[in-house]
């Protein structure tokens, strides 16, 4: 178990992590957070009992600093952290696209940094998080981060060179599923179903399909073929998807997201 933990930035992801840590057994006294907006800080303290502090206090008192601000807010935050973070402080970055080298260049030499790409299902305890060590982070540091994030979902280790791909695939991934579900609900309405019925049909189908993938261990091709009868309704739908290039469009979309993640990193760390 680690000592005190500070979450820097209490947006949706920051709050989800605070909530998950408390649910996972962390004591209120072990946690603190920073938040620029006083009303939001007061709201979270009232909800969870966790103290809101300034960045300097968090850096001085916490053994683990979890950075959950927007990428465009990182430079001023690092300026505040720099005088206080030491080699005994573990910095965990949840900021999309930002490399560990950005933190290492801004903070004292030897500060261990672990880069994380989570996703929004963290708010329901079903995140997929990929973690990568910076130059000074050890296996022990990675184990600490795995322990922290396991309370809000699954965790995998990847080389940092793969983080832009992870960002495109699982970081942005929930949006692709929401987009597809939205389109399928609209299709149900087009076919004459009430919106409420269409939503229930598609959402539960999505939940069931994801559960089958997770629990059976079968390749998605095998599961899809099991639904696809000769000359049946499913193969006719699949033919239309292939005719309109849906598979190729997904490949192009995820590549575009990867490219944008790389651009974000270069904008903040051109070296």
From TrEMBL:
Broad EC category: oxidoreductase
Residue stretches making up the Pyrroline-5-carboxylate reductase dimerisation domain: 160-264
Coiled-coil regions listed: none
Protein name (database record): Pyrroline-5-carboxylate reductase
PROSITE patterns per the UniProt record, alphabetical: P5CR
Family annotation (NCBIfam families): proC
Family, similarity comment: Belongs to the pyrroline-5-carboxylate reductase family.
Alphabetical keyword list: Amino-acid biosynthesis, Cytoplasm, NADP, Oxidoreductase, Proline biosynthesis
Residues annotated as binding NADP(+): 68-71
Catalytic activity: L-proline + NADP(+) = (S)-1-pyrroline-5-carboxylate + NADPH + 2 H(+); L-proline + NAD(+) = (S)-1-pyrroline-5-carboxylate + NADH + 2 H(+)
Pfam family, any one: P5CR_dimer
EC number, as in UniProt: 1.5.1.2
Every Pyrroline-5-carboxylate reductase catalytic N-terminal domain range: 5-97
Pathway the protein contributes to: Amino-acid biosynthesis; L-proline biosynthesis; L-proline from L-glutamate 5-semialdehyde: step 1/1
Molecular function in Gene Ontology: pyrroline-5-carboxylate reductase activity
GO cellular component: cytoplasm
Example of a GO biological process term: L-proline biosynthetic process
Organism: Actinophytocola oryzae
Record's function text: Catalyzes the reduction of 1-pyrroline-5-carboxylate (PCA) to L-proline.
């Amino acid at each position: 178990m680690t000592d005190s933990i500070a979450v820097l930035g209490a947006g949706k992801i920051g709050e989800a992590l605070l909530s998950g840590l408390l649910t996972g057994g962390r004591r209120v006294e072990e946690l603190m957070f920073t938040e620029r907006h006083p009303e939001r800080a007061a709201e979270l303290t009232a909800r969870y009992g966790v103290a809101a502090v300034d960045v300097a206090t968090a850096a001085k008192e916490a053994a683990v600093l979890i950075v959950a601000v927007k990428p465009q807010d990182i430079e001023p935050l690092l300026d505040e952290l720099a005088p206080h973070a030491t080699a005994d402080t573990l910095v965990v970055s949840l900021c999309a696209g930002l490399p560990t080298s950005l933190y290492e260049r801004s903070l004292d030499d030897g500060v261990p940094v672990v880069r994380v790409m989570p996703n929004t299902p963290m708010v329901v305890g079903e995140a997929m998080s990929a973690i990568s060590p910076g130059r000074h982070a050890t296996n022990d540091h990675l184990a600490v981060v795995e322990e922290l994030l396991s309370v809000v979902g699954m965790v995998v280790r990847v080389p940092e060179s793969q983080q832009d791909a992870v960002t495109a695939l699982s970081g942005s991934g929930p949006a692709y599923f929401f987009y597809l579900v939205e389109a399928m609900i609209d299709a149900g309405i087009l076919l004459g179903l009430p919106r409420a019925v269409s939503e229930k049909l598609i959402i539960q189908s999505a939940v069931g399909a994801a559960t089958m993938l997770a629990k059976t261990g079968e390749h998605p091709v095998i599961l899809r073929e099991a639904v696809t009868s000769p000359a049946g309704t499913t193969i006719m739908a699949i033919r239309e998807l292939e005719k309109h290039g849906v598979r190729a469009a997904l490949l192009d979309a995820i590549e575009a997201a990867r490219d944008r993640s790389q651009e974000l990193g270069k904008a903040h760390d051109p070296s």
